[in-house]
Specification:
The protein is of the alpha/beta class. The protein folds into two domains: 64 residues, no CATH class; 242 residues, 3-Layer(aba) Sandwich (Rossmann fold). It has 13 helices and seven strands. It has a seven-stranded mixed sheet with strand order 3-2-1-4-5-7-6, with helices on both faces. Helix 1 runs parallel beside helix 3. The longest helix has 21 residues. The protein starts with 6 loop residues before the first helix and ends with a strand. It binds S-adenosylmethionine (SAM).
Length: 340
């Protein structure tokens, strides 16, 4: 066998390394973008899921227990776009009726995931499957503290403090993994999610944690859950699950509602070698039982939307949120709305 990847070798690799089939066809496509068996194998070796199997099921020498805030294994190193990478074929504009249809698919998929395996749908590591969550739920919720610590570090690198952002908005709160941590750091927090099942859990969790400065909004297609201005807009591992036209519309809405001088800090994949998005093909292939999808919005489009809304770019940071076997380029953008 030569080193080239095929869909069949990807499926075989999944079964060999993590004992299961890929969760979806897009994940097979992501894995194919590694290009060679050697690179795919390295990605598996680095993935939290494979490491978890080595420790718990094969009973290899245990590594020392990490402190609670590091209980979720760090993601692999960010992927890099080769300098000679070709353009991607991505349709990212559409009409209102198509927007409604696309968002309805996102809503139905995530509502079902929230009912079936809520924690795993947020962080797809084996220890967060329903049958193992009792032992691992504390680590799951503690992990949100890292997201907030990183957000505060981003603010401070730019000479800013959380107190300068009294109205913070978390887009795609999931089951509240990050929310209570945000609520302890910012004065008023508004969160939204497209999935009622996730949001119900987030509400309970936040209430249990004893914070009372969080407002919850369900995200629907006209406003995407965003109705009033905010000083800081934050979103991680959310936009990537939406088709490109929806990502673009969410960003437009968020930038429009960002107060003068306000900051947007968000993550989105911007390049994946095997990725393509054609609206007609996508709609024709929609599956009511769809699993987690991954999508891309090219970096020049993010910059274009920012420019149009009067936002300047403060930082673009490489990140690895696009998944353990997804050789996708993903970035965290830090944008500031012009003070007026
Ligand atoms: C992987 S989870 C991440 C949750 C949270 N950001 C975290 O880091 O714990 C993705 C969440 O985004 C939500 N989501 C996906 N698309 C959305 C959209 N268009 N509007 C609002 N929420 C969305 C899903 O319902 C899900 O709860």
């Amino acid at each position: 066998m030569d080193g080239n990847l095929t869909p069949e070798t990807v499926r075989l690799a999944y079964r060999l390394f993590v004992g299961r089939d890929p969760e979806s066809e897009p994940m097979v496509q992501h894995a194919l973008s590694y290009g060679t068996i050697e690179r795919l194998r390295t990605a598996f070796f680095r993935s939290p899921e494979f490491r978890g199997i080595c420790q718990s099921e094969l009973r290899l020498a245990p590594t020392p227990a990490p402190p609670p805030q590091q209980a979720v294994a760090p993601p692999p190193l960010p992927a890099q776009v080769p300098l000679d990478a070709p353009p991607l074929d991505i349709e990212w504009r559409t009409d209102a009726a198509t927007t409604t249809a696309l968002l309805a698919h996102v809503r139905d998929t995530w509502t079902r995931l929230g009912n079936e395996q809520p924690h795993w749908s947020v962080l797809s590591a084996e220890q967060f499957r329903p049958d193992r969550i009792d032992a691992n739920e504390a680590a799951f919720f503690a992990s949100g503290g890292n997201d907030v610590a990183q957000l505060v570090a981003i603010l401070r690198r730019n000479g800013l403090e959380p107190a300068a952002f009294p109205r913070m908005f978390e887009f795609g709160c999931g089951i509240g993994r990050v929310t209570a941590h945000l609520a302890r750091t910012f004065r008023d927090v508004t969160v939204c999610d497209v999935s009622a099942s996730h949001m119900a859990m987030a509400r309970d969790k936040v209430y249990e944690s004893g914070v009372h400065n969080v407002a919850f909004k369900l995200a629907a297609s006209d406003e995407f859950g965003m109705a009033a201005p905010f000083d800081l807009w934050f979103s991680r591992i959310v936009l990537q699950h939406n088709p490109p036209p929806i990502i673009a519309m969410i960003l437009r809405r968020a930038f429009a509602l960002l107060a003068p001088g306000g900051l947007a800090v968000f993550q989105v994949p911007t390049y994946a070698a095997s990725y393509r998005f054609r609206i007609a093909d996508y709609l024709a292939g929609l599956d009511a039982e769809a699993r987690i999808e991954m999508h891309v919005l090219p970096q020049p489009v993010v910059f274009q939307l920012a420019r149009q809304a009067g936002c300047e770019i403060l930082e673009v940071l490489a990140d690895a949120s696009a998944g353990p076997v997804a050789q996708w380029n993903s970035s965290i953008f830090v944008l500031r709305k012009n003070p007026g």
